[in-house]
Write a structure and sequence with these properties.
Number of helices: 11
Order of helices and strands: HEHEHEHEHEHEHEHHEEEEEEEHHE
Length: 361
């Protein structure tokens, strides 16, 4: 589904009218998707949205759900379940911003509702749609990298705690800190490039070294810095994920560190490796050859910059039209959530955590 006429047949509402909600609304308008309206518990947010988009706004999500066929949910993590489950039970299509939820139990309830529904439910892992990632995935699928065995995944900011005192920095609402905010992107992308193998076990350490400090250097945060009071989440994490058939992931993620920022991924294959950074529009393929004299082969490929959120939205409407799962499937997002939960448990206990499939009672 790519034609504007097709996109115009799915009126879409937005739940959660903060910055990311407006970000989605801008792109929906650009794609020609009719806005069914917006919902937020904050009157200020509703008034701002109504003024900016000339759209109907609601204080109760049920009124919005009566007006649309699809819903984009951009609320704080704790409220994903309430809005997503109700939408799915009403037969609405759902694009849910990552992570799936603030806890593994809540994530499992959303996944169960999605499995019971005939509606499309997609989780917003937009980095899958980066052109460099698309190129690498195509080469992996063609076998050009051989067997892909390991991914080094970095999603690191130097100073970028998202507003100390905001919901992002409160465990009861967010479910965690840098790991559940940034780490989910890195974990999903690594698993995606490995073709989402079964996950056997995880080990990791989460840290809170910067956000709780009075002398935190305020440089790149957005929103108001309310200081360290109430900051009770991690601001960095290091982890190792062991998957089926010996495939592995090493993870570094952080809101704040004393090192240069990086979104570099290294994809190890038996025939070649691919290196790319989500900040850049290029990737490099590294290999070696014994053709003639032994030598290294390094090829840099420059890609066109693209709007990953717009392409994510297009994939969402294509999934609605075709009935096929495209992009961030809920069952894959649940795997990411289980890894995040496992890393937190590993950090608490100091032990490796098994992620064998849960047996339902």
């Amino acid at each position: 589904m790519t034609a504007d006429a097709d996109l115009a047949t799915v009126p879409t509402g937005i739940v959660g009218l903060g910055n990311i909600g407006q970000y989605h609304a801008d792109r929906l308008e650009q794609l020609g998707v009719p806005l069914a309206g917006g919902m937020d518990v904050s009157k200020e947010a509703r008034d701002r949205f109504a003024s900016r988009y000339a759209a109907d706004v609601y204080a109760d999500h049920r009124d919005l759900y009566d007006a649309g066929d699809a819903i984009v949910i951009t609320t704080p993590n704790k409220y994903h379940e309430e809005y997503a489950v109700d939408a799915l039970e009403r037969g609405l299509h759902v694009l849910l911003e990552k992570p799936l939820a603030h806890s593994i139990e809540s994530a499992e309830r959303i996944a169960a509702a999605a499995a019971a529904s005939e509606s499309t439910c997609m989780v917003g892992f937009n980095n899958r749609f980066l052109n460099a990632v698309r190129l690498i995935k195509e080469r992996i699928d063609r076998g050009e990298l051989g067997e892909v065995t390991h991914v080094e995944a970095n999603y690191v900011r130097r100073r970028g705690v998202p507003g100390r005192g905001s919901w992002f920095t409160r465990r009861d609402i967010a479910g965690g800190g840098a790991l559940i905010d940034l780490g989910v992107h890195a974990i999903d992308l690594a698993l995606y490039l490995l073709d989402y193998p079964a996950v056997d076990e995880v080990s990791g350490v989460t840290r809170s070294e910067f956000g709780s400090r009075d002398d935190y250097a305020y440089l790149e945060m957005w929103g108001t810095d309310a200081g360290p009071d109430g900051f009770d989440v991690d601001d960095s994490a290091s982890a190792f994920v062991r998957c089926a058939e010996g495939r592995t992931i090493s993870l570094e993620t952080a809101w704040a560190t004393n090192r240069p920022p990086s979104k570099e991924f290294v994809v190890h294959g038996t025939e070649a490796a691919a290196v790319f950074d989500l900040y850049e529009n290029e990737l490099t393929i590294h290999s070696a050859s014994s053709d003639g004299t032994d030598h290294f082969v390094d090829a840099t490929i420059e890609t066109r910059e693209n709007d990953t959120h717009s392409d994510e939205q297009r994939a969402f409407y294509e999934a609605i039209a075709t009935g096929r799962s495209i992009g961030g499937a809920v069952e894959e997002a649940l795997t990411v959530q289980r890894i995040v939960d496992g890393i937190y448990r590993s950090s608490e206990t100091g032990r490796t955590v098994s992620l064998e499939p849960r047996v339902e009672s």
